Amino acid sequence: MLFATCQRLFCLLALTGLLSLPAAAQNTAPDVASDDEANAPSKGLLPLEDLRTFTRVYDHIRNSYVEPLSDSELLEYAIKGMMAELDPHSAYLDAESFEDLQVNTSGEFGGLGIEVGMENGFVKVISPIDDTPAQKAGIEAGDLIIRLDEKPVKGLSLSEAVTLMRGPKGSPLTVTIVREGVDQPFELVIERDIIKVRSVRTKILDDDYLYLRIAQFQIGTGDDVASRLQKTLGEHSNIKGVILDLRNNPGGVLQASVDVADAFMDGGLVVYTEGRLESSYSRYEANPGDLTDGLPVVVLINDGSASASEIVAGALQDQGRAVIMGTRSFGKGSVQTVVPISESRAIKLTTARYYTPSGRSIQAQGIEPDVQVERAKVTAVKPRLRTTEADLAGHLGNTNGEDESDSKSRDQARSAQQSLLSNDNQLHEALNLLKGLNILRQPKLAEPQDGAGIAPPNAASDEIPSPDDIPEAP
């Protein structure tokens, strides 16, 4: 039986060119060979002893496993095993997984709305996706999922766990979570929905600052960012700075990250990649022309910012184009290539590392922010009730025609600031930094015009006259 199994595998490997016959069979073996020479396989050829071990294991499983398995099933399991022993981002994509990958990059799929990976046999949340059931239920980056409904996650592959998380719209799923800082695992009941990832969102903060949020890098994200920047800056000529929010962005399409960085750069290197194959060496340059015309930029990142997010943050940081604020990023500095091996199957293989323009590899290290700001709950101290000059009856008006600032208007402005501070202190700090950068960009104060600030002749003065100015008595 073992001979038949070996024969089948040997024939397959010989046809693929991975197997060579022993030297003795070719009548070309030298009379004497060192142990190192005997044990060292030729380049590109399989070592025969290891192949014999494989065929023995294969044969035992095929004949003795408690349930019958076909050759095709065993070979597919062998492929999955090889991929699983590589880095966490390489994987074998069966028909369902291959389809899921294509759906994810297009931006619409069904489920909970989280980007996940594997860690110590459990599903680890890289980041929840904006405006999805997972985010609304309170799932956080770094959470470990240990159970889905009544099924333990331990022992499942990532694709199997993802399949359990998928389901019809409206169906509930009980997710058991282990979270750092929480003593006991806890459960969240999440109702599945159709996930339509809105990659880019914008809004205006304090009338003068553009907030641009990228949730995920999809195929069209670069074009979407460019069109929104052009539209917003065209409609709001008073914009003084941009906040680019990449927090909890798990990455996505490499070219999309290059296009996003390009929108804020006036030429220059964005990222380059290096690997074993010549084709893995690539350089990505920004085109001339900064769509923001040099406006100050603050980029927000955290430990959920991965891959393509780190490419953008690293490029803008190295090129001196933005201030990076928040906490250290995830640290995924590798590039995966999807290689179809049939019409419905593929492998996702790590083929290169990427480097920022200064030559930094952020693999397993992450992007260190220029300004460290932890996410925190901040409560402002309520000020005492005070009366201002504008509250006093009969007060003088402002000669410059500016709006008066009484206690009521100050309370309204303070309330808006406190709302942002309590809801998102990192965004609050980014906005304050942009305001400071904008102050430094202001032109030098011009001299008063038309004699402003110069007292007219014989004008009354509150200065005490000097003795020389006091006339003597007659």
UniProtKB/TrEMBL annotation:
InterPro entries: ClpP/crotonase-like_dom_sf, CtpA/B_N, PDZ, PDZ_sf, Peptidase_S41A, Tail-specific_protease. Residues 414-423 have a biased composition (Polar residues). It holds the Pfam family PDZ_2. It comes from Gilvimarinus japonicus. Belongs to the peptidase S41A family. Residues 1-25 form the signal peptide. Residues 465-474 have a biased composition (Acidic residues). This is S41 family peptidase. It comes from the Bacteria. Residues 384-423, 444-474 are annotated as: Disordered. The keyword Protease applies. Residues 98-166 form the PDZ domain. Keywords: Hydrolase, Protease, Serine protease, Signal.
